[in-house]
Write a structure and sequence with these properties.
heterodimer; A: mainly alpha; B: 211 residues; 3 domains; 0% strand
Amino acid sequence: MMFLRKQLPIILAFVIGLGLWLQAYIPHRTSSAGLTTFTQSWAVILAGCALLLGILSAVHHHWTKIKLRRQGFAYSIITLGAFVVTLVAGLSWWNWPGFGAAKMADGSLFTWIFDNVFTPLAATMFSLLAFFIASAAFRAFRARSFEATALLIAGCIVMLGRVPIGELIPLGGGHDLSDVAGWIMNVPNAAAQRAILVGVILSQVAISIRIIFGIERTYMGGSD
Amino acid sequence: MTEVTPIGQLLGVWIAAGLTLLIFSFIYKDNPAFKFAEALFLGVSLGYTAVNTYWNSIAPQVIRPLTPGVNFDAWVLLPVFLGLCIILRVIPSLSWLSRMAFAVYIAGYAGMAIPNEISGRLLPQVGSTMAPFTAATWYITPVILLGVFCTMMYFFFSLEHKGAVGRISRIGVVFVMISFGASFGYTVMARVSLLIGRMQFLFFDWLGLPN
């Protein structure tokens, strides 16, 4: 039993990881077929099941909240109700009254829910952050040190330079503020992002090697 | 293309406008109307994810290959078994089975990442950083080279940041701060743009004000 619980996942990780690593150096159709099978079938199925697990977990959480009448359980009823309605609308193969299509097609109830409930809610929720990000900017953009001043100036130039008014602020030599904003985004910003990216890639390669050779086992969880 | 009835469209605009106002009520303070909209958003998001997962992953990759016919493929049973192992996490006594699936998924991507990340991202990035200096790019290439070197030095903790290393890493901090400032400004612009979009919807689509 211990073999199944502890050693088998490590052996699987080694075989699959090494196989998909080495296939990159083998220019043969069997090799590329293995990669295609993994990325287009296995990974899609596993990611789909992981998503279903997350949905099951959320539904279980709200169901328990309703069952135990915990504080705010009425909102959980709304969540589960909206979930069921959206699910039925998206999976049903018949046209609902007033709608000319079924499933996820244009003109279906599911698309109507997506366009008139999901999209406005998502866009407004994120637009709400404009107010809070403005107050955060007020606190963050204080020129207390040289570094904070650099952050303040870069932020202000990008904000002003990326709107139409930026093109109306001339800086001489035929350039305007939008050119400076573009330069900041494409040069110093790109340089810092590139350095961070190089660090991320090197770390990713290192952690991948650790996973394949069974040194990194956090994905297995802590308990038996 | 099939269309929704005019009543359905009108109802949709009113519902979208109502929900937009419910979310905006949070600007005043947290209130039951906002919480209602938030709960609705969560439910619809869960439903959308479930439907999307079914039609784009489960139906084409599981149902179709396992339906008797020309597309039948018994090999699919292997990832389906692993997928079921993931779902079995909800049963505590069988949750250890999900390790098999996670091992396959994570190690598979780890194996692919090593050659792909090095040849597809690391080397091109390093190559672009070390591009030759020309008269046309004198204000771009040297600054990028300096910025990348100094920023990497700032994140290099094997040497104490004193003396020359300290001075170089201080230049790196300036690059990082400019980058954070630019990213922050860009994020603000994106959020304000969304806000303008919602206001346009309320004024023009819902209230029908002349555009």
